[in-house]
Amino acid sequence: MRVTWYDRASLYDRAFSWDPTTERTFLLSASTEHGRGAPARTLEPFCGTGRLWADWPGAVVGVDCNPSMLELARTRGSVLRGDVTALGLADRSFDFAFALIDSFRHLLTHDAALRHLREVARVLRPGGVYVLGFDVTGDLPSDVSRSIWTQNGVHAEVYGLGDADPTTRIETVRAILTDTRSKNADIVDDVFPMRTYTNREIDDLLHLEGSFQRAATFNRTYKQKSRAPGSQATILKKSTQGGTGFAVAPS
Ligand SMILES: C[S@@+](CC[C@H](N)C(=O)[O-])C[C@H]1O[C@@H](n2cnc3c(N)ncnc32)[C@H](O)[C@@H]1O
Question: 139 CA to middle of ligand 1, Å?
Fold first, then answer.
């Protein structure tokens, strides 16, 4: 059976165990500046190991489909095993939601992405915020990008294997994690599909969903506002009108 890098949660968690201060500060200021203030209840769809939950204000609930990731996340907060396109959570029960590290690109079809956005909009209270962080491609075929780093005794390489299919917009990604402390050279080598998006495709999706408005978009530094291709973190604000959507289409 194929072993994915998410099946090796402790290795994954060590690779992503950098100082979370910048991400946490950005997320919490997105809620205080654009949303409902310091969140009493936060949702993390695609929560993985819950690596950002330490000292999080209020309650946090994570949703993920991978049992190995959830086993680790459960030691850090409340979790629900499920699919992010059908959350199984009550309407208007969260103030804030976030999903970073390209997780949204795991949803491979337009329909799945739309269902997910509608689900998050449904469970957010009016005026709540959803922060989505993922890589956006340019309109032209992209260069192959490669991320390489070593963290907490894990060497990680993550890269695309070529341009996305022009029809499905799906690219193939390879992720290799190597435990540099293990005598047996413990490695997980995973190849999987991810959906790609241009800025225009994201705008179309948000327009169709209708209840989120883009409050701001930042680049990978989380400090500079930019919609340039590359890593983006977008702050989506749910209408305060109570689920009927914004009168003006998101720009
Ligand atoms: C990049 S990882 C998690 C990142 C995590 N949010 C973080 O910041 O560390 C993506 C996660 O999404 C989960 N996932 C992918 N597709 C999913 C789906 N349709 N429903 C629920 N979880 C999903 C995977 O199991 C994996 O744990």
Answer: 26
225 lies in which domain range? 13-137+196-238
Q: What is the CA radius of gyration of the chain?
A: 18
Residue nearest (by alpha carbon) to ligand 1 atom 22: 64
Cα 100 to Cα 97: distance, rounded to the nearest angstrom: 10
Domain with residue 169: its CATH number is 2.20.25
Q: Give kind and range of the element (H or E) at residue 125.
A: strand 124-136
Please indicate, yes or no, if residue 246 is contained in any of the structural domains.
Answer: no
Q: Output the CA 84–ligand 1 centroid distance in Å.
A: 9
pLDDT tens digits for range 17-40: 999 999 999 999 999 999 999 999
Q: Which helix (H) or strand (E) holds 154?
A: strand 154-160
Number of structural domains, the chain? 2
pTM of this prediction exceeds 0.85: yes
Q: Based on the domain organization, do 64 and 172 belong to the same domain?
A: no
pLDDT tens string 156-165: 999 999 889 9
